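Shipment paperwork, digital attachment
Item: protein structure file
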Amino acid sequence: MPPIKIAPSLLSCDFANIAREVERVEAAGADLLHVDVMDGHFVPNLTIGPPVVAWIKKYATRPLDCHLMMTDPAQYIDAFADAGADIITIHVEATSPVKPTLERIRKRGLRCGVVLNPGTPIEAAEPFLAEIDMLLVMSVWPGFGGQSFIPGVLDKIKRARELAPQLDIEIDGGINDATARDAVDAGANVLVAGSYVFKARDLADPIKKLRAVR
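Attachment content:
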């Protein structure tokens, strides 16, 4: 299985001091910076858009892992690529055709991936597993931070790991040292954690605990 990577979610950081937060979490050992993009339509919340991603990019040295929770992500690929995204993941439940959207991401020289909501079966992602760099499995329903982990998604991760032994499999939602262990045991290797990391006094402590679950 690929090595464990920790991707703190900036959704939980102090947005009034985002440059400082990026520097703090990178110094604490983050491998990726997870950027939750919500359009207020696909999910009932609005968050980061391309201008904010561009500002984050000015301070970040780790790759920006942009998770597009958008109804029609295809029309924004160029905007996020221009802003500095390194990885773009799109939902199979969105209205944009998946394969052409992935091809568009690739043409911009970025890594690409697909996302599955908790209720979406692994079969929805199977046609794309050979074409993507990352599969993101949501372990909460997307839209808001601070939700509880849904253990039913673990079987989906196990099946994905059987189908794609070398693929980065990311899990997002309710991740802490206990749920991360279950996720890694199932086959996940990229751990997104928001409040668990940013609520800590020393950000390095939760990141070390997550990295040690294997």
